[in-house]
Amino acid sequence: RLSFCLLLSACSWGWAPGGAAKPKGQGYPHMNSIRIDGDITLGGLFPVHARGAEGKACGELKKEKGIHRLEAMLFALDRINNDPDLLPNITLGARILDTCSRDTHALEQSLTFVQALIEKDSTEVRCVSGGPPIITRPERVVGVIGASASSVSIMVANILRLFK
């Protein structure tokens, strides 16, 4: 599983394990993400891509400060989950997002981690059949690893602190 995730991170960063590849665009704001299901979900913010040019959010892949840190988190999760003595009967999952080496993008991405805490009013929403909608809530993230720069980590911590 680890080698698959490492290959995945290096070759096709837009695919999320546990789900299908999703095109970037309306309805899929987090193409540059990895999701691994688990009993407890940890968040990750890494600069996998460099800052984009000409109005683009993301640029070239960053190997040392981006991919290597992403791989380190995936490796740690894999080691913890495969050791029956560390967390017996508990599996760690992850939701890892790309900051694209931009503080504003990191802040925007960090809001993904609090979506599970925000109640959405669905009283006016009805299915075509007339029944109530089935709304799946995002996983609750219990902690976040990253961001790469202290200044970004402080800003993200301030946002996340509002939601405890």
Helix/strand layout:
Blueprint: H1 2-11, E1 33-36, E2 40-46, E3 49-51, E4 58-61, H2 63-81, E5 92-98, H3 103-110, E6 141-145, H4 150-161
Parallel strand pairs: 2-5, 2-6
Antiparallel strand pairs: 1-5, 3-4
Helix pairs in contact: 1-2, 3-4
Describe the structure concisely for a colleague:
The chain has 164 residues and is α/β, with parallel strands linked by helices. The protein has helices spanning 2-11, 63-81, 103-110, 150-161; strands at 33-36, 40-46, 49-51, 58-61, 92-98, 141-145. It has one domain (33-161): Response regulator (Rossmann fold).
Walk across the major sheet and give the strand order. Answer: 1-5-2-6
> What overall geometry do the principal axes of the alpha carbons give?
globular
Q: What's the main sheet like?
A: 4 strands, mixed
Radius of gyration from CA coordinates: 17 Å
- Summing up helix and strand content along with how strands pair, one would put the structural category as alpha/beta
In total, the number of strands is 6
Task: Determine the fraction of residues in helical runs and give it as a percent range.
Answer: 25-40%
